[in-house]
Design goal:
Blueprint: E1 3-6, E2 9-12, E3 17-23, E4 32-38, E5 45-51, E6 56-58, E7 66-71, E8 76-81, E9 90-98, E10 101-105, E11 109-114
Parallel strand pairs: 2-11
Antiparallel strand pairs: 1-3, 3-8, 4-5, 4-9, 5-6, 7-8, 9-10, 9-11
């Protein structure tokens, strides 16, 4: 599967962005889809994940502000980001899991939050 992330850009602190991850084929076969981010000089970290039963989990730093969702009919996964903070700045990637680890990655979309 090929994944393409989009929707990044420049936002002010307190603002919102919605990221989209488009898959080249059905995402039903992937048990989990995750959004990761990599800030400058830092390791890539898992921000949010959604499983095939629509259960979700979030990094503590984004709980209550970010929402991950999936549309199996459109082969899309979304990340709604509200109340953005400068520390949310980074390149955001979507990833499709097989078993318990990412097996495919999107190309990343830059999110920059200004204070």
């Amino acid at each position: 599967v090929q994944l393409q992330a989009s929707g990044g850009g420049l936002a002010q602190a307190g603002g919102s962005l919605r990221l989209s991850c488009a898959a080249s084929r059905s995402i039903r076969g992937f048990p989990t889809i995750g959004w990761y981010r990599q800030a400058p000089g830092k390791q890539r970290e898992l921000v949010a994940a959604i499983r095939s039963d629509d259960s979700t989990n979030y990094a503590d730093s984004v709980k209550g502000r970010f929402t991950i969702s999936r549309d199996n009919a459109k082969n899309m996964v979304y990340l709604q980001m509200n109340s953005l903070k400068p520390e949310d700045t980074g390149v955001y990637y979507c990833a499709a899991y097989l078993r318990s680890a990412p097996a495919a990655w999107g190309q990343g979309t830059q999110v920059t939050v200004s204070s």
